[in-house]
């Protein structure tokens, strides 16, 4: 019997997931609410890196009936989760591929999640995605699983692997990888999105680099204080990254090393700035909640900044980074 999956959200990650599963011979149904994307999908116009992805079925979210016997990949932004979770009665088949921590989703009992370290960009009204930064897909359990659940996770990982679009790593526990991805996302996204720059410019502009490294260190300190284990995403383990950041001259050298791989990389928060909705709460808000009484002045400041830009529909500009730096207590940016 042909394996099947429903993918909620035809954005960059949803399209990449669809390309993988269709290549692996799966039957794929895309769930989307954007009329332009739905029309394009029904004309078989979905592409990844310019290559057509044909054969997917498209259904409007309002008409979607959640399946009871098929994998459901949740590939929306976290602020769009609520209506999905209200409709899904059985979360056992749910596999989120998202960044950040949504409090409602965290309370669900789904057995697995996946974390993408590659970056896939898709315009708001089109079905044309492109991978702007290479990386891997980690997939694994988020709690103790039954043998049947483990088999389902392995089957999904095998299907992603078969496509050979990006490296796929099936891990026994996805949570340390998710925490590590948060450490990076919560440093890159609010700064790049506020300034209106690509990710590489955080390593080019002296003030942006200073803020970026300081926020990375604060994020690591919060996760360490909370006792959350971390794992390697990218070339270095987070412990090694912190040793580099604490060693004179090494951060600037490493910045030169990583800058080319980040040039042109898409920041997923950037198109949401000014819309009234961003994932800042799922990133930095989650870290602040984890921190409790532990000091986290930069996270609090970037939350206030992103919320103000979004609320007041302000233009994205590097000036915001200067205001951010000026708002921090003395000694925070050493």
Task: Give a quick set of tags describing it.
334 residues, Rossmann fold, N-(1-d-carboxylethyl)-l-norvaline Dehydrogenase, domain 2, 4-stranded mixed sheet, 15% strand
Topology:
Elements (H helix, E strand, L loop, with lengths): L3 E5 L3 H12 L3 E6 L2 H8 L4 E2 L2 E2 L4 E4 L10 E4 L6 H7 L6 E3 L6 H4 L5 E5 L2 E3 L6 E6 L3 E5 L5 H17 L4 E4 L3 H21 L10 H20 L12 H8 L4 H13 L17 H12 L5 H15 L7 H9 L7
Parallel strand pairs: 1-2, 1-6, 2-5, 3-10, 6-7, 11-12
Antiparallel strand pairs: 3-4, 8-11, 9-10
Helix pairs in contact: 1-5, 6-7, 6-10, 6-11, 7-10, 10-11
How would you portray this structure in words?
There is one protein chain. The protein has two domains: 170 residues, NAD(P)-binding Rossmann-like Domain (Rossmann fold); 151 residues, N-(1-d-carboxylethyl)-l-norvaline Dehydrogenase, domain 2. A five-stranded parallel sheet has the order 5-2-1-6-7, covered by helices on one side. α6 runs antiparallel to α7 and α6 packs across α10. The chain is α/β, with parallel strands linked by helices and 334 residues long. It is globular, with a radius of gyration of 20 Å. 44% of the residues lie in helices and 15% in strands.
Please report the total strand number as a whole number. 12
Q: What is the chain-wise order of helices and strands?
A: EHEHEEEEHEHEEEEHEHHHHHHH
Helix content: 40-55%
CATH homologous superfamily identity of the largest domain: NAD(P)-binding Rossmann-like Domain
| Rg calculated over all Cα atoms | 20 Å
Number of helices: 12
Question: Which regions are unreliable across 5 or more consecutive residues at pLDDT < 50?
Answer: none
Roughly what fraction of the amino acids lie in strands?
5-15%
Distance from first to last alpha carbon: 60 Å
| The CATH C-level class name of the largest domain | Alpha Beta
Q: Mean pLDDT score, rounded?
A: 93
- Name the overall outline: globular
Strand order within the widest beta sheet: 5-2-1-6-7
In the CATH hierarchy, the third-tier topology of the largest domain is known as Rossmann fold
Query: Given the helix and strand composition, which structural class is it?
Result: alpha/beta
What CATH architecture label of the largest domain applies? 3-Layer(aba) Sandwich
Main sheet attributes: strand count, strand direction, barrel closure: 5 strands, parallel
For the record, the count of structural domains works out to 2
């Amino acid at each position: 019997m042909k394996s099947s999956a429903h993918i909620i959200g035809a954005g960059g990650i949803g399209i990449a997931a669809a390309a993988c599963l269709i290549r692996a011979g799966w039957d794929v149904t895309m769930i989307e609410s954007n009329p332009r994307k739905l029309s394009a999908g029904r004309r078989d116009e979905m592409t990844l890196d310019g290559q057509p992805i044909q054969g997917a079925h498209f259904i409007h979210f309002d008409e979607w009936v959640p399946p009871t016997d098929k994998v459901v990949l949740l590939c929306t932004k976290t602020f769009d989760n609520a209506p999905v979770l209200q409709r899904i009665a059985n979360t056992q088949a749910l596999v989120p591929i998202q960044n950040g921590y949504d409090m409602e989703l965290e309370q669900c009992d789904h057995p697995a999640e996946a974390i993408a370290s590659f970056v896939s960009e898709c315009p708001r009204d089109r079905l044309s995605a492109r991978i702007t930064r290479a990386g891997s897909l980690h997939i694994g359990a988020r709690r103790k699983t039954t043998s049947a659940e483990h088999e389902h996770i392995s089957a999904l990982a095998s299907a992603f692997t078969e496509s050979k679009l990006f490296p796929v790593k099936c891990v026994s526990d996805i949570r340390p990888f998710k925490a590590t991805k948060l450490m990076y996302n919560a440093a890159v996204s609010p700064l790049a999105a506020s300034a209106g720059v690509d990710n590489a410019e955080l390593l080019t502009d002296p003030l942006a680099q200073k803020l970026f490294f300081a926020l990375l260190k604060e994020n690591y300190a919060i996760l360490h204080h909370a006792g959350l284990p971390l794992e390697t995403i990218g070339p270095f383990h987070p412990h090694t990254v912190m040793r580099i950041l604490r060693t004179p001259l090494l951060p600037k050298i490493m910045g030169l090393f990583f800058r080319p791989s980040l040039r042109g990389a898409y920041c997923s928060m950037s198109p949401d700035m000014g819309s009234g909705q961003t994932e800042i709460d799922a990133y930095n808000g989650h870290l602040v909640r984890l921190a409790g009484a532990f000091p986290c002045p930069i996270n609090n400041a970037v939350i206030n900044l992103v919320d103000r830009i979004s609320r007041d529909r302000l233009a994205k500009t590097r000036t915001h980074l200067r205001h951010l730096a000026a708002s921090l207590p003395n000694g925070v940016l050493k």
